[in-house]
């Protein structure tokens, strides 16, 4: 009897374990690794009848670029346009479509590619500055809604065409999207790189009506540079900050993972001392005095001396020299942090430093009163900045 039951159970379970109901060969999926969004003002797209689509309403607003990896050489067909890997063989297929919405353009891809587009492995979205200044919520709406999209997808802004970012030929990577996706990982080495810039964090900012930043990227034929940031007020880009300003904006907002700080040498103003950030923490607390709001910003950091570029400095190991370097570094950091706050306040009025969160946490009653008028209050608030730097290691110099 037991043998009969075991045989029955084996046959019964085999029915449900025989395979996946939506099984598809990997070569038959159109894995989308990257998505670029440009304005429809490019003249060349209008000349290409394949890339231009007929729209049911109005004229095309955007040009979407979908990057699909070519999994096997057998799938390469004559006339396929796309980037190529370092060995010269074609690795990606960049399809462009002009349309009013991504959903519309996505379905139009089906007229040109015989694989269904698959977005669960989407790594990056690159947005052109023109699109960003007009507002990015509309072109990203479908991405926020579709359950196939991953909230960890990284988003970047470029002053040039998004297509050009995806069309590079990386020297040491097969796919431009994978190369770009990995660059924010270097934020532990360089704090000029923004790293918290995925779809999930942008969605949260949109729904809470808060300001934010996205990383700036530029490219040539073989490489991409990820440094600097685009400043957004609500969903519209209002301007850029350069890579040094981005560095100290991260100091203010307590998002530094690592990086460097270079200061003048106490012994020779023409020489520099390079410090490596080992840890950095910033606390921001509001001080409410009647109707006046100020912010106390306290930053504490532990650094190592990485390099002194004037040789034979006999004082490099002396405590007096180290204390002098610490004081110089503190003054420089305080100055740079104050300057980037005042620049963003004056030029853009965008609270990308999360001062509103400090208000919500430490002064909730006051925040309830000023929340609706915060856009007018933030550009006028004053800050008191105090930086404390401690150098713990000077390196092996003997």
UniProtKB/TrEMBL annotation:
<dbReference type="InterPro" id="IPR046953">
    <property type="entry name" value="Spore_GerAC-like_C"/>
</dbReference>
<keyword id="KW-0564">Palmitate</keyword>
<dbReference type="InterPro" id="IPR038501">
    <property type="entry name" value="Spore_GerAC_C_sf"/>
</dbReference>
<dbReference type="Pfam" id="PF05504">
    <property type="entry name" value="Spore_GerAC"/>
</dbReference>
<keyword id="KW-0732">Signal</keyword>
<dbReference type="GO" id="GO:0016020">
    <property type="term" value="C:membrane"/>
</dbReference>
<dbReference type="Pfam" id="PF25198">
    <property type="entry name" value="Spore_GerAC_N"/>
</dbReference>
<feature type="domain" description="Spore germination GerAC-like C-terminal">
    <location>
        <begin position="228"/>
        <end position="395"/>
    </location>
</feature>
<keyword id="KW-0309">Germination</keyword>
<comment type="similarity">
    <text>Belongs to the GerABKC lipoprotein family.</text>
</comment>
<dbReference type="GO" id="GO:0009847">
    <property type="term" value="P:spore germination"/>
</dbReference>
<dbReference type="InterPro" id="IPR057336">
    <property type="entry name" value="GerAC_N"/>
</dbReference>
<keyword id="KW-0449">Lipoprotein</keyword>
<dbReference type="InterPro" id="IPR008844">
    <property type="entry name" value="Spore_GerAC-like"/>
</dbReference>
<feature type="domain" description="Spore germination protein N-terminal">
    <location>
        <begin position="22"/>
        <end position="218"/>
    </location>
</feature>
<keyword id="KW-0472">Membrane</keyword>
<protein>
    <submittedName>
        <fullName>Ger(X)C family spore germination protein</fullName>
    </submittedName>
</protein>
